[in-house]
Amino acid sequence: MHVELKEGKLYYSIGEISKAFGVNASLIRFWEKEFDILKPKKNAKGNRKFTPEDVKNLQLIYHLVKERGFTLDGAKTHLKENQKQTLDKFEIIRKLETIKTQLTELKNQL
């Protein structure tokens, strides 16, 4: 899954996040409660503001739960036991997907 968010922003709203992931905001709020690695800031009104680090963690959670079929408990365990290794592999996969997309675009231009 490639998430489309504006680059360079310091914070993203829950609406931007839910749209980028194609899920309801309620699922993002649920994952926030379930996964300790998600720690969005809240402004004076209580609105969540997600950092780029939160977005990375959401991508990882999405990958484990939605793409790989982990249960929530399985994803939590996997993240606790192998967080660094999982994150490294996940980032490599995402970089390769980006390269693949770029190569496909180049091919289609020819």
How many helices? The count is 4
Choose one word for the global shape.
globular
Radius of gyration: 15 Å
Which percent band covers the strand fraction?
5-15%
Describe, in plain words, how this protein is organized in 3D.
The chain is mainly alpha-helical. It contains 4 helices and 3 strands, in the order E-H-H-E-E-H-H. It has helices spanning 14-21, 25-34, 52-67, 72-109; strands at 12-13, 41-42, 48-50. It has a 3-stranded antiparallel sheet with strand order 1-3-2. It is globular and about 50 Å long. The two termini are 26 Å apart.
Question: Which descriptors apply to this entry?
Answer:
single chain; mainly alpha; three-stranded antiparallel sheet; 4 helices
Short description:
The protein has 110 residues and is mainly alpha-helical. Helix content is 65%, strand content 6%. The protein is built from 4 helices and 3 strands; from the N terminus they run βααββαα.
Record the SSE blueprint.
Elements: E1 12-13, H1 14-21, H2 25-34, E2 41-42, E3 48-50, H3 52-67, H4 72-109
